[in-house]
Amino acid sequence: MYLSKYIEDLVHEFSKLPGVGRKTAFRYALHCLNSKKEVVVSLSNTLKGLHENIRFCRQCNAPNDNDICEICVSRTRNQNVICVVESYKDLIAIESTNQYFGVYHILGGIISPIEGIGPDMLSIDLLITRVSELINAEVIMALNPTIEGDTTIYYISNLMKNSNVKITTISRGVAFGGELDYTDELTLSRSIQSRQPYDQLINK
Amino acid sequence: MYLSKYIEDLVHEFSKLPGVGRKTAFRYALHCLNSKKEVVVSLSNTLKGLHENIRFCRQCNAPNDNDICEICVSRTRNQNVICVVESYKDLIAIESTNQYFGVYHILGGIISPIEGIGPDMLSIDLLITRVSELINAEVIMALNPTIEGDTTIYYISNLMKNSNVKITTISRGVAFGGELDYTDELTLSRSIQSRQPYDQLINK
Cα separation of A65 and B92, whole Å? Predict the structure, then answer.
């Protein structure tokens, strides 16, 4: 269809990217064809170098350029507060709020019997070891508010119940700017159950 | 922000693609990070090989894998009918209709004084030479219906006026499935001016 095997191949490769269909992939391929060779080679080299150069923090599993990431070595971060997230994507989402000054722990997934993901496939042992070495630690469970997320929180908190650690979860409720009549029943009922004193809200 | 220079670089490279912002670029980069190394290397190699391997048809300028493209050498194609298009993208659009059985000529742009594109920067000489070698040729001008497109058609048809060639343009009018009250005045007025006998329409 594209007259050239090389364009065909590139369209095929681009359409493996998430949310990219053949039309968008062809648009990307055309852009590459019309760009200077150096621009395309630069993208090519960056892609090739990714897996060769990336390393994962031995403490929190975050992808970074060293043996241990800059958040885990930072002196301005509270090393006693660990925010447990499912993936790196969630870490970036929390970092971009600029409101969190503790450290992280990336589980690498959540417990999901349907998808065949058991606790042994996640970085839970490392988390337990980390926490056991701390005094007065707080573990913030920042997992997606789903059945799987709740199961994972329950599992981990059970393992930690004998250690002297404070376990919290990020608050759930109606999103800021959201509308009550469009909020699902479960969220709304939980949001009423976990209501907070007004003065606590405004003091934050 | 991304803890890793390599992820940062990849996001930067991906965001050069058309219509890709930082958020989508990060999504692509994450996908690459979570994919197997071979998948990413495959994309990398395809990109690298593009400019090295691609060739342009010496007759019609279409990007392909040989000295001359498969449309230009095809015996099932009418070599006396040349469809003039602005770019390869338009060739693909016409090919995907499966209704055209002539050959193509890619100009590589259209005359646009605002963007500084003059006739000498386009593949017009090659087209004139091609046409002069044919007997009873037809040249179909399939350029975008804009001022620049019309200027280019006017310029090329002027150069050909002494040769024995039939020059046509693709018909313009109301798009199939379109609504009259949403059609702009210029299109609608042209569409009335170039009205066709009804029996000619149904015989097609």
Answer: 43
